[in-house]
């Protein structure tokens, strides 16, 4: 990939004014074409290099891309897909390169920007425009009643936060959000500080994505993490990829699927949309991928109706039980619940299954045959499964399939929830969780040397409700874009606005920063690409990937500003100001030398013993189901579960909308206005709808429509205005549109049972012609 820089010789980074010339007014000139049937290849290389050079210039782009995901480099701040044992010299994907370019940009959002624009003027701009202002360079303060952010010293900022926190009637009147980009070391000191303050109000981005996976896996196998390694993926006979679009969201996964295909594996894509990344992969690291036909990935695509996955896996399991195609030895030795599950599946309503899935009986039978023929099966999933009312039940039914077939604790087989943010799983391992188990707190308390609160805190939705109701008065966000990631945008904005103080630790401006509380602080922090030098010398941080592997990350670029502090330094200096040294914790010593943090982690958290000694080589955390077919459930056995079929009711004239990312996007960060794989160019306000559904509502391809949600009990109606309707190959009754533009349609109180995850993948809407 790096050889492509020859084409860009003489290029230089853009200025802010030049970037503005790239048409950031959404939907001006929006065009569509037929969706792509290939992912990656030369277009991905060109796109990655253009983004890099535009933001960083040629020399900085070459230097930075060569360090991504390398042993002596930094971990990509994009997805959490693991690194192979043998690294390619270009061990990154197109969207990873975009993520790095966003962080390592030479553009700067300094005090002059905030002097030029009021908060109201900034709020009138698009998320895309805000993100393209560049790196934050100085701490900034929006005083009560002020119209503009103004510079403030770090000491002044810490004094303000400390004063507000110490003035609270209870520590539970503050909420401390965490994004998955935070390192293990920063996450550990963050939760230690918050608990020293006296609360478990630690909502995090996992609450909005894989919380349903964690709950279901804890119940079924005793640990809320996936059970496979990268080697298992590549050794599998059958890979079922459900509710996931790896071509955009986890592109390096395509290389693993290609390797599995090379060994004879079958791949099944279960997804409402036929995504390019699972159709054909043009591997940019191989000549065949650049100039040949690439690799066909999916042997079978099941275009399931939105929210039909529980019905599908229930139907497959019913067929397995009817045929007695189960692993009796494993079930007898390791599992409970077979009798109840057999009885429940014997009564499965086949007509309801077909209605819920939109699939034919023959298609479900074809999937079943592949499952029966496979000796090594892996099931991968992402938000397409986790963001529904019945998500926990659906994922338990996925676990049932693998338990029935004996596919856990077996090479080449297992469960693979594919995480998004690069360290969202590590944050949870470090204790970023509003409902920590007592045993975890006991060990943490012994290591830290001070008492920890035991009452559960609030998750993301709970935090929004608490801010709305005046129960949380201070909000601190460690990274991320809380407003644009959360559901019910209007309710979330009002909740943030009701706080006495909102604080955001960030690298770049985003929507949350221009939706402040009565007072607000922006605290600029080092990025993953930058050198972190403290009193004890140059520091290293660590992250945990989707498959429980922990490894080091080292930035090499000079900081974007001399005013930047690391996340660790920000947390520790604030903790020193607010709670002071406690027990075995000396905050400023921890900030000076991260090895001291890792020594505490080694004492506090199982699996991290000898952390510093193992840091550079990396290590894999224990996973009892994978390692020894042992299960930390109450009775020590894996649990087969009964999950009654629940079919989403959609009134006549309505559609089920799923929110999703464009290809020029990662989570809430908008890289550009194109979705190359889905054929959308120069715009984001589009809704993908089956042509027959458009016709049934008297609409045509290209019409402009408003998306209107179902009324709340109090009569509230949510509306997302002015979307281009695009006739698209999606199941009847289903639609898709990008977030965060459509997050406003997700009701705050519509969440998954048991996990509390917003139901962003099953929103009932109708289409109205735009006025």
What labels describe this entry?
alpha/beta, 33 strands, Dimethylsulfoxide Reductase, domain 2, EC 1.-.-.-, 4 iron, 4 sulfur cluster binding, disordered N terminus, 35% helix, oxidoreductase, molybdopterin cofactor binding, iron, 4 domains, 32 helices
Verbal overview:
By secondary structure, this protein is α/β, with parallel strands linked by helices. It folds into 4 domains: 2-103, no CATH class; 129-209 and 423-615, Rossmann fold; 211-418, Dimethylsulfoxide Reductase, domain 2 (3-Layer(aba) Sandwich), CATH 3.40.228.10; 655-769, Barwin-like endoglucanases (Beta Barrel), CATH 2.40.40. Helix content is 35%, strand content 16%. The protein is built from 32 helices and 33 strands. The strands form 10 sheets. The chain has a 6-stranded mixed sheet with strand order 6-5-18-17-16-7, sandwiched between helices. A 6-stranded mixed beta barrel has the order 25-32-29-31-30-33. The chain has a 5-stranded parallel sheet with strand order 12-9-8-14-15, with helices on both faces. Strand 21 (541-544) and strand 22 form a beta hairpin. Helix 2 (41-56) runs parallel beside helix 4 and helix 8 packs across helix 27. The longest helix has 16 residues, at 41-56. Residues 1-25 have low confidence and may be disordered. Its EC number is 1.-.-.-. It comes from Paraconexibacter sp. AEG42_29. It is an enzyme of class 1 (oxidoreductase). InterPro entries: Asp_de-COase-like_dom_sf (IPR009010), MopB_CT_YdeP (IPR037951), MoPterin_dinucl-bd_dom (IPR006657), Mopterin_OxRdtase (IPR006656), Mopterin_OxRdtse_a_bac (IPR010046), Prok_molybdopt-oxidoreductase (IPR050123), YdeP_MopB (IPR041953). Residues 20-37 have a biased composition (Basic and acidic residues).
